[in-house]
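Continuing from the previous page of notes. For each protein in this section, the sequence appears first, followed by its structure tokens. Read the first protein now.
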Amino acid sequence: MEIAEVLKNFCQEFNAYLETCFPLPEGAEQRTVAAMQYAVMNGGKRLRPFLLCECAGLFDIPHNISFPAAASLEMLHSYSLIHDDLPAMDNDDLRRGKPTCHKQFDEATAILAGDGLQTYAFEFLASAQEIQPAIRLTLLQLLANAAGAFTGMVAGQTLDLYAVPSGNPQTDENVITRLEEMKTGRLLRYACEAGAVLGKAPLDVRQHLVTYSRKIGQAFQIADDILDREGDQKLVGKTLHKDDSQSKFTYVSYYGVEPARKLAQQLIAEAQSELEIFGIKAEKLHKLARYIIDRKY
């Protein structure tokens, strides 16, 4: 089965589960919960939940165990997108081909919805009785670290907003790599690592999945940078050419399109080599790696 079909089938199953996660309060406070639900259910490739569930599946962990962790991850990811789209950040009107949360509702509600999703992600995971308490604690620690302001997603967003070229090639390359590693790569890493934690994988086996995640994370960001430069806005579902217009520090602005494309291909090959120890069980993860740089959105 082609990976696009695999992802489509996964999305149908996972989205049906996600819809059960947002009971609406009866009072006026339901507006924020409705905005939270809108942001989470507003399309999306579900790559991070898919990665988490596939990595857990390498150790024979079924979806009823991995879905609560995957849902909390998607909630946290969706919070980051809401805030990323705000006027003070990337100031975007489109997300996944639909109005961004602050356009569909209003800016104050969008901020609250992001705040709500961030806290609900941890509440939901902490309450997941399907997962053993010790494993839940490890996942909570890993997720908080991946999202945070020191080496996580918030730190990456800070670099994205304020990093500028220094003129020193080695320094600039390090900044681009750190930016991607924290802003985009940390949640992809968490997805793979969480799957291994759910499967009680030994540390050396877990490291193969961490390295895989780092390689596909860089390739994913390069593909996004190229799509911003060359993509079809109707397919991509968000405003394009913003990196250049905002003078963003990206792989494409630093390397150029073709060198960046070649780097992405090299990274995918290296990522796939990390899966060899899993044999045929990792077939979908192999295909996903290729999909990351071949996708049109």
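Done with the first. The second protein uses the same format. Note its length before scrolling.
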Amino acid sequence: MREDAQDYTEIDLVELAKALLSNWLLILLAMILLGGSMGAYNRFLVKPTYTAEAQIYISNSDSIVNLQDVQLSAALTQDYSEILTSRSVLKKVIASLELDMDYRELAELISIVNPQETHILQIDVTTDAPAESVRIANALIQFGVDRIFRVVGKETPAIIDYAEEDAVAVNKTSLIRHVMLGAILGFILVCGVVSVRFLMDKTIRDEEDVRHLTRYNVLAEIPEYIEEDAEVMQHG
């Protein structure tokens, strides 16, 4: 960084690049250390979660629900979703499975999705154990379908699929992704430190620095007096 008479900042990108290249070993070490640390974090500290999936079909006895009846489908989807995650249903699931949580905590484990242009509700339950996810999903289906029938009072929704342990999805960030993220952070960190030090450095080392700083040419130089030179001159 150099300040001229007009008081604006000029950055010499070539010199900045040279400063970064001169610290390539430090940058490489930072990438290795942070990449390795993130890899170890993924390997030993990040625990996977497991998502169990169950599905029910949205039906309505008073009208033919088809793909063109978008408004009716959306209304039924919202109604069924609210009933499935209602307080009464969640409390029955907790009591039946003897879960150590309240209904609010259980609700955070549940996700209900309506695949586009379908009349299907997909119930996803995510926990730290595959068997637990399956048990909760199936209990939610059973108590939820019964509650829907009691509230709507027309016909029981059809269950398409119960949750099964061999179909549980495992959720965990990949090891390679964590390592790459750590390496990128190491690169950015060291490059940032080197760049800041370069921009804050106003040391004048040669004629070129004087020109950049003052916009004046150097007319003369005062040689540096070194004791060894003096001794040579005396013996000469």
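What the second structure shows: The chain is about 55% helix and 15% strand. The first strand starts at residue 2 and ends at 3. We return to this in next week's lecture.
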